[in-house]
């Protein structure tokens, strides 16, 4: 019992992931407001993909050893099937890699 109390007290100040709104997006650093205000966040993304989320998007922030990192935005689009990939911009441009091997750019098949 004393061990459980010790572990619990020792880990009381562990940070957890938070969801917040992007409030500033400049270059590769952004600000997110949740229960805390995070500024100059670096982002994590798959290799070869770079994006800057627009203000107002829901972002996920996780703690690292001496800083915080934005994992990305919360995906709201459910129009694709499992296994498909959709790239899109705020301006409406879309590229869909479909399960049948077809590529659609702004709805037009290529």
User: What is the H-and-E element order?
Assistant: HEEEEEEEEE
Number of strands: 9
Pairing-aware structural class of the strands and helices?
Answer: mainly beta
User: How helix-rich are the residues, as a percent range?
Assistant: under 10%
Instruction: Provide the spatial order of strands within the biggest beta sheet.
Output: 1-2-3-5-4
Number of domains: 2
- For this structure, the quaternary state is single chain
Main β-sheet, in a few words?
A: 5 strands, mixed, barrel
Can you walk me through this structure?
With 110 residues, the protein is mainly beta. The chain has 2 domains: 18-73; 77-110, no CATH class. Helices cover 8% and strands 42% of the residues. It has 1 helix and 9 strands, in the order αβββββββββ. It has one helix at residues 2-10; strands at residues 18-26, 29-33, 37-43, 58-63, 68-73, 85-88, 94-97, 103-105, 108-109. The strands form 2 sheets. A 5-stranded mixed barrel has the order 1-2-3-5-4. Strands 6-7-8-9 form a 4-stranded antiparallel beta sheet, with no helix packed on it. The longest helix has 9 residues, at 2-10. The model has no long low-confidence stretch (mean pLDDT 86).
């Amino acid at each position: 019992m004393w061990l459980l109390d010790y572990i619990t007290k020792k880990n009381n100040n562990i940070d957890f992931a938070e969801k917040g709104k992007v409030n500033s997006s400049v270059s590769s650093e952004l600000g997110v407001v949740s229960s805390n205000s995070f500024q100059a966040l670096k982002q994590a993304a798959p290799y070869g993909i770079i994006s800057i989320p627009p203000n107002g998007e829901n972002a996920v922030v996780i703690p690292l050893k001496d800083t915080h990192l934005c994992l990305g935005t919360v995906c709201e689009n459910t129009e694709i099937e499992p296994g498909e990939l959709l790239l899109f911009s705020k301006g409406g441009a879309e590229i869909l890699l479909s399960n049948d091997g077809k590529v659609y750019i702004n709805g037009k098949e290529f």
